[in-house]
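agent> Task received from the user: take the single chain below, predict its 3D structure, and emit structure tokens. No templates, no multimer pairing.
agent> Plan: (1) validate residues, (2) run structure prediction, (3) serialize to tokens, (4) report one or two observations.
agent> Step 1 OK, no nonstandard residues flagged.
tool_call: predict_structure(input=
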Amino acid sequence: MLEIKVLGDLQVLRGGTATALPPSRKTRALLAYLALTRHPHRREQLCEMFWDVPDDPRGSLRWSLSKIRPLVDDPAFPRLLADRQSVELRGEGLDVDFLSAQVCAEEKPTATGNLARAASFFRGPLLADLELPENSDFHTWLLGMREDARQLQAKVLGSLIERLSASPEEALPYARELVRLDPFDETAWARLIATLAASGRSREIRQQYEAGLRSLRQVGGGSGPLLRAWRAAQAVTTRPADRGAIAAASAEALRPSIVVLPFLNLSDDSEQQYFADGITGNLTTDLSRIPDMLVISRNTAFTYRNRPIETKQIGRELGVRYVLEGEVQRSESQVRVTAQLIDAETDVHLWAERFTGDAGDLFALQDEITSRIAVALDLELIEAEAARPIERPDTRDYILRGRAVRLQPPSRENRAEAIALFERAWVLDPQSAAAQSWLAIALTARVLDFMAPTASADIARAQELAERALAALPRSTIAHFAKAQVLRAQHRYADAIPEYEMVIALNRNWAHSYSHLGWCKFMTGSIEQLIPGQEQAIRLSPRDPQIGLFYSRIGSAHLLQSRAEEAIIWYEKARSATPAHPQFRTFLAAAYALKGDIEMAAAELAEARRLVGDERYSSIARVRAITSWGEPTVCALAERTYFAGLRKAGLPNE
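)
tool_result: status=success, residues=654
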């Protein structure tokens, strides 16, 4: 029997003994492809898949087949069939582990022993040692086969867990392997918790539950099968007297977590209930997009409609830290929405706000109100979570603290503090894509705010972190934001645009992405896009701690188009909101000077120099070296306004 193993590194075995393989990766890849496809292939198709025209594809194919033939042929039975038109590897007397596992999984009924044997075949990703990204056809086929193998392994493991439910200790290794296979599969985590409970491993249940939550928070999960499995495990493994303590531990593990209760309709018109329900549903969706936020599903939340239950009881039943409730009232053409955030443990009201609007376009109003509530809540929850005393902070705790510091108006001190907190998060969990992303964001923020001691080193490190985070989580909002920030810090504005657009597609309420997107479009020549992007950011987050940035960019749109009076208004607002930002001061200095107020211009320029503490604002040449104005048309406008104003303010050319 000839065996070809593809689940892991490629191996060829005769009589159980491994055979030396050709050193050529393409030859080994061709062997694996023929073994897995099991049908004749046209020579032209194989040539196109593995070789480029300059490589003499036909000659390369003949050479590779000559290396494969001794591996697979027997003296009395040639398996490799090749004529002038086609190539085929015959399946008789050939065992391929992936195909054998497929047969085993599809047999009905399948013996438990056969399933266990199939599970043992999986030594790693399919063809783990064969990567040919330069050969796109093969690479595409390989990625598809790897996903098929992953799904097959999950199916085999799931069948074994179910088959061995009466012997949980035997099922446990397979439950652990299923979670390792896909740490973002909430059902897999639920199966592991249930198996641990059946095994009586009460101490490990909580550890695995918290591990599952940390993993699933990255994809917005944890409140479905895992939560239900956790509750069921409580019933199995604890005495009634102990359940209150475990429920409290559950709430602690779920930080930060929230349920949006159905908003009350206070209008006389009962038909307005659909509007109130729409607010509830949209908020549930928008809050689930906030990084590290666990949100109870809409269906579960609606079971509490019209039920007079205390907030503390809701928190205990759902294992959540916060409850959001609200009211909707319509009077003629006006709609008023009131929302309030409550700490479910203490029943203390943490935040409340009222929103009003014209009911002319109810859907647009619904979107605007829910977006504004979601953004405001994001800021409020970050501060509330970061302020909680924690005896032993973990990765997520340090991330929350770093984000809270980032929300402060930028200064050298808080930029450095945020970086230090994200560093500690990353040290605790070097594989955390969230920690990598936030650290990259903090490093680039320090560069973009002209507060970095070594800008090039910060950018290089941020780029590596962002790339690692995106490779681990290609659909992560914060990873795409991190990459966009790196590209903007590198002055690659055109490349940053699609990344910011992806962030907005994943989370329509990320106010800073609208602002940065407008700036990048401005830098690529679309000058008219700058102000609308800032206005959208301000609408979404009118109390944003970094709103000075939005104001400053509106000022720049006016400045570069020689509207100095309008620019001064916005730059003064930016200075008031963010007094420690040096660049805002230089913009204001240029605008003052163009307006003829040289004394105030010189004062702002002097303050900018004091804030940076170095010589970067000592001459026009130095300012040019640290700033980028994108496209030539924008550069020309900057020369006629920004740099001209700095000269009038007294800044020398050299």
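agent> Step 4: summary for the user.
The first helix runs from residue 25 to 37.
agent> Done.
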